[in-house]
Amino acid sequence: MAAAKIKKGDSVVVLSGKDKGKTGTVAKVMPKDGKVVVEGVNVAARHRKPTQQSPQGGIDRFEAPMSISKVALADPKDGKPTRVRFEEKDGKKVRVAVKSGETIDG
């Protein structure tokens, strides 16, 4: 399996959909499904009927998973979307932003 280009804790920019242009931090990555959960983006609402556990009922809001292809890593320099390349520095494999050439981790 290829190395992950987007990891938990990364800052990403949404490329398409209703939240296009928004930025957020990756809360969860689901590589088998090809999905990510980004904080504050793709918020879904579920209307709940009153139950014994929650007699009030109401609307639950939560971040729904979205396709990993809809997000791009935010460039560390200017915050704009960039692709990721892998390079070897000091014998370690590190992620590098294609746009600016800055290392993302390591």
UniProtKB/TrEMBL annotation:
Q: Which family does it belong to?
A: Belongs to the universal ribosomal protein uL24 family.
Listed Pfam families: KOW, ribosomal_L24
Q: Which CDD domains does this one have? A: KOW_RPL26
| Keyword annotations from UniProtKB, A to Z | Ribonucleoprotein, Ribosomal protein, RNA-binding, rRNA-binding
The protein's name in its UniProt record = Large ribosomal subunit protein uL24
Alphabetized Gene3D superfamilies for the sequence: 2.30.30.30
Record domain KOW: where? 5-32
- Organism of origin is Qipengyuania flava
Report quaternary structure and partners: Part of the 50S ribosomal subunit.
The upper taxonomy is: Bacteria, Pseudomonadati, Pseudomonadota, Alphaproteobacteria, Sphingomonadales
Protein's GO biological process: translation
